[in-house]
Amino acid sequence: MTTLTEAPPAAEEKAPRRVALRPGAWIVWGAVVFFLLILLGVVGAVVIDSFGTKWFGGWLPKGWTTHWYGTTWKEFDLGSVLTVTLEVAIAVVVVSVIVGVPAAYALARRDFPGKRVLMVAFLLPILIPPITYGVPLATVLYKFHLAGRLSGVILANLVPAVPFVILVMTPFIEQIDPKIEAAARMCGAKTWVIFTRILGPLLIPGMLAAAILVLVRTVGMFELTFLTAGADSQTLVVALYYSVSAAGIRAQQEIDAMAVIYTLSMLVLLVAALRFVNPTQLVTQIKERD
Amino acid sequence: MASSAVASPRIALRHRLAERGVDRTLLLLLPAVVFVVALFIYPFVYGLQLSFQPQPGSEAVNRYGSGPFADYRNFFADPYLRDTIWTTLKIGLPAALFNVLASVPIAYRMRGRFRGKRTITTILVVPITLGTVLTAEGLLAFMGPTGWFNRILMDVGIVDHPVRLTHNYWGVVFSLVITGFPFAFLLTLSYLTGIDPTLERAASTLGANWFQRFRHITLPLLAPGLAITFCLSFVLAFSVFPSAIMVGEPARQTRVISIAAFHAAFEQYDYSMASAIAMIMGAVELIVIGLVLGWRARLYRGATGGKG
Q: B201 — contact with chain A (CB < 8 Å)?
């Protein structure tokens, strides 16, 4: 990669160095392939088991069937579980964008006393693991009789979601030239018009990216939902956890079928997300946390 | 006359505030601030004060009276509770360390442009979104006694009997590596690509070989970023909960501190003990992160990228 642009004196060194690099390159690529194979095995084992009739030892199941999907759908009442998941996810996305984007705008455009303290307060919910603040949060939500219901699950999931939207949106707004707003104001636009006609269209790609990332995180968020959900407010991932920890009552294939449904819904979200967000950029934005 | 005398200091104050960046735009922050205070800071403070008010009739009160520190004393006196700290560290530290150290050479190799880079980074994001529950479920099937992994090992002839890799310490570590490694890798990769490549080229012109370039140019610039990567990986590994129950041995070998907190809150309904455990958990984690960040503060953080 760098050898092409190197200065001529380095060219003489090239031949011995390439020999020296080779084993290292093989080890690195080998490690990557090994990791990807394990990943394939982990996901593949679940997918194949969910389509198999019986699988006790042997490389593959004895026969193939899709009827586990029907039984798991009925027995775990997945229709209502998916509805709850969707309701929670959409509510969290909408509220976190509505609350987070204006805050991100203020943080991006103004430098005021106490800004650093505020930034730390917004960072903490992301940096502290969910279980640590989830236990006190669930206690408070139970005290106000919110936990065990849909509203409690939504509130708990908003705790990391709002700061996440702020973190993703602040650098995004910073890169929009404030002169555009100034020009609009010069032309007589009111604040409301600036927000709806000038900033809104410019912010839509960033808001879309933030919304999809929050959606993925909320559907995958186990701990907070687990701590606050009641019997009829479980999301898919929590229902999956309960079915695994109660294994033995249900056929393993049913659980795996449920896991596949979960994986598929996550994959659809992921593919959608990757159309708008580049993974390395996403992480560079996480870097801004510091 | 009188009205202008009243109005002018008011305007002046507004101007002075605006000069320091305080104006009506800051009202946009209000919903988010109310939100963080109500749902994060208030529960945290509530939990903290609850942890100093032991629940009457609980185990801690029976043993140590109803003083404010009864729950904490109970935690540190009972080995079944106290050892959860050690268990968590024993799982979390090696997993986080492995994720960071393994991602350095791979990211170093991949930092340039090549075909298929986007595909590989995309595949690596998948386990982050799969989450711990699905990873645990997959590990049970894949690495269990009759899974493909053991089958391959036996067919190749490395082992005679299936190796036990699930329902113990190793199962949890594997699940943490599968979910944590891609995260550490992507973070390291973005730090590495932030380092100015001309620095390395300059060193190479001066006759440094790849190891010298890595040791004296890249690594010092990357180290602060690695410290942050380690902290974030550690936070992920430290809060291990579902996989410790599903692929671990939650009664003994992988009884991590989050299981103890959950057990106290939702099985014994002793919320003050649970809050005390959650606070201890937060404190232990902050101590580790503080140590790493303290070390990081001594490193060079220049404008050449990889700053973290």
A: yes
Residues of chain B neighbouring A244 (CB-CB closer than 8 A): 133, 136-137, 246
The pLDDT tens digits of the residues spanning A94-152 come to: 999 999 999 998 888 888 888 888 888 888 888 788 888 888 899 899 889 888 889 99
Q: Which residues of B touch A137 (CB under 8 A)?
A: 39-40, 43
What is the distance between the alpha carbons of residues B248 and B259, in angstroms, rounded to a whole number?
11
ipTM for the whole complex: 0.76
Least Cα distance to A202 among A194, A210, A211 occurs for: A194
The CA dihedral of A247, A252, A253, A254, to the nearest 10 degrees, is -10
Decide if B269 touches A, using CB distance below 8 A: no
Helical spans, DSSP H, in A110-149: 115-127, 130-143
Q: Please state whether B127 falls in left (phi above 0), alpha (psi between -120 and 50) or beta.
A: alpha
Separation of alpha carbons A55 and A57, rounded Å: 6
B292: Cβ contacts below 8 Å, ≥ 6 apart:
B227, B230, B231, B234
CB nearest A223 (choices: B26, B122, B241):
B241
Count of CB contacts below 8 A, A vs B? 273
Give pLDDT tens digits for B266-299: 888 888 899 999 999 988 988 998 899 888 888 7
Query: What are the structural domains, with CATH classification, of chain B?
Result: 2-43 (no CATH), 80-296 (1.10.3720.10)
Q: How far is CA B245 from CA A126, A129, B171, in A?
A: 23, 17, 10
Q: Which of A87, A254, A276, A126 shows the shortest CA–CA distance to B235? A: A126
Put simply, the answer to whether A280 touches B189 (Cβ < 8 Å) is: yes
CA distance B235 to chain A (A): 6
Considering only CB atoms, A57 lies closest to which of B137, B146, B258, namely B146
Place of tokens 């559907």: A219
What are chain A's domains? 3-64 (no CATH), 68-287 (1.10.3720.10)
Q: Answer yes or no: are the C-beta atoms of B100 and B226 closer than 8 Å.
A: yes
Residue in A39, A131, A137 closest to B39 by CB: A137
